[in-house]
Amino acid sequence: MKLRLSVFFLLLSLQLLAQQYQEVKDIQYYESPTSEYVKQQSKLDIHFPKDEGKKYPVIVWFHGGGLTGGGKEIPQELKNKEVVVVGVGYRLAPKIKAEETIDDASAAIAWVFNNIEKYHGDTSNIYISGHSAGGYLALMAVMNKDNLAEYDIDANDVAGLIPFSGHTITHFTIRDQKGIPGTQPIVDKWAPLFYVRKDAPPTLLITGDRELEMLGRYEENAYFYRMMKVAGQKEIELYEMDGYGHNMVYPALPLLLKFVKEKSDQ
After folding, report:
1. What is the model's pTM?
2. Is residue 77 part of a domain?
3. 3-class DSSP state of 181
4. What are the C-alpha distances in Å from 52 to residues 59, 107, 154, 181?
5. At a CB cut-off of 8 Å and minimum separation 6, what does 10 contact?
6. Chain centre distance of CA 14
7. What is the domain count for the chain?
8. At 11, which helix (H) or strand (E)?
9. Taking a C-beta distance cutoff of 8 angstroms, is the pair 202, 236 a contact?
10. Where is the signal peptide (predicted)?
11. pLDDT digits (tens, 9 = 90+) for 36-70
């Protein structure tokens, strides 16, 4: 009997917890989609607390996949954590030029700034994150201030930038489309490193173990970290997930939540 009661109360607690959050899916973030492919891909999902009496920190999450694959997602470990989570989809190469994915990322972030209050999000606490290609898009959308300025948004209004194993050099798919080998590192206008500046939002760089990561991924993040420090940025950290390779998302998500909580409480 005691076991049955315990199971009952556990299920009841889980049900009540589920009732406190809501999800909406497939929201178009371009006001006027220019093609069927934009309509298909340029959408986002939102997981948010139902409590209307409070504004919650917002995490914008870009999926990985080399700018050629994957789909919008909200990591399960970010759900029901007193944050609003936005999972963003975007167009993919080779149907478009890979650099056009940055346009989608910027448009999605702008949509969040302009609309997330409807979903109980705090526009003064919007954090941009993502894994691999998603980390690259997070960096590019924010580091190059022109991307958000196109939507009359100051990139420095982003509360924090937390890329997971993102390229800080020019993305390998962009290099490939330009006929540049993946083993030839490039820093040009398609590289976050091109835009290092001291006034960027607080940043937490997370990578896998340098011996297990994709070629050079830890080292390029370390170089970005160093050059940001040289530029005068004081609020930047680099965290290496010892023992984990490129697929280090799950164990790193608590670091993201910790960063958001600490910055939001300031």
Report:
1. 0.92
2. yes
3. coil
4. 18, 26, 27, 51
5. none
6. 28
7. 1
8. helix 2-19
9. yes
10. 1-18
11. 999 999 999 999 999 888 999 999 999 999 999 99
